[in-house]
Amino acid sequence: MTFDWSDYLDFAEEVSRKNSATEAEVRSAISRTYYSVHNLASASTPKSGKVEINNSHRNLVSRYKFDKINTNYQEAGKILGGLKRDRHTADYDSDSSKLGQNLNKKLQSVILQAKEFKRLADL
After folding, report:
1. pLDDT value at position 115?
2. Please, what sign has the CA dihedral across residues 91, 25, 76, 95?
3. Are 42 and 51 spatial neighbours (Cβ–Cβ below 8 Å)?
4. What CA–CA distance (Å, rounded) separates 49 from 97?
5. Residue 17 near residue 29, CB atoms below 8 Å
6. Which residue of 13, 30, 102, 123 is most buried, as measured by CB atoms within 10 A?
7. Maximal C-alpha separation, the chain
8. pTM over 0.70
9. Do the beta carbons of residue 15 and residue 26 sit within 8 Å?
10. Residue 20 to residues 23, 42, 71, 87, Cα–Cα distance (Å)
């Protein structure tokens, strides 16, 4: 049985609906949202090439962002890069103000971006 990476996005949506989500829950949900789209996208990279093993996160963003054929992929790459930055901040930066004043609004924004990435990347 294979794991459905979309379940991470479902988890993030559940957290975003909670009135009293903790900072740890929101940070985890931001991170899971990124990994949801990252792992779905890894399985379906643009035709312009495969993702190299070394630094696959950056390479995956580049595969979309610099795709020479599909402008939707280019826009999707920009979104994926932003989601990657948000995930990194959520996972490694203890200064929560870097995620914005309202963490739940940030989570909702990340979820919307992830959905837009999926639409643009045909996932």
Report:
1. 98
2. negative
3. yes
4. 37
5. no
6. 30
7. 44
8. yes
9. yes
10. 9, 33, 39, 21
- Eight-class DSSP state of 51: P
CA dist 49 → 25, 29, 105 (Å): 36, 30, 35
- List CB contacts of 48: < 8 A, sequence separation 6 or more: 63, 66, 67, 68, 69
Instruction: Locate 85 and state its tokens.
Output: 């930055």
Residue type, 83: L
Q: Which two tokens stand for residue 30?
A: 């931001």
